[in-house]
Amino acid sequence: MKYAVQHHGGDRTEIVEGVITNVTPSWDHESAAEEIRDQLRPRVKELGCVTGSGILDLPGSSNWYVPDLAVVPKSLAKGAGALLPDQVLLIVEITSESDAETDRVVKRKRYAEYGAPLYLLVDRVEATVTLFALPGRLGYTKVDGPHPFGTPVRVPEPFGIDLDISGL
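The structure corresponding to this sequence follows.
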């Protein structure tokens, strides 16, 4: 199944716990991602990274994720078809009504299991933001939040910036 999705072209498709899902974000959803991207951009450039929503493979599982936003070292992004979660510096998922529980529970668990160092969950359903850090096989061991929208959220090094999520 993963092979078929890998070679399927045209749209954003991911596999979450064995279920193939087309990822079709709304303009409102994309606007939220752009707001975060704009705030990260200066530091991302300083770090020699790029932002995007490319494919993350989770080897040994049926999962194949397309995060709403990820920060990736430019050297790894160039020519890459898919990356592993532990190769990115930050993953951002922005919930919508249809996928909120997947982002809150399933992806949080899997991103930690596969070593994604920072996972920012922007929960537009609950109007909160939570930053997860220090991944391990049993989940993230450091949780900052949930904070209500309007509360600045500190994204630790290598970013060292405060994100303003009030406009989402």
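The CA atoms of residues 17 and 122 lie 21 Å apart.
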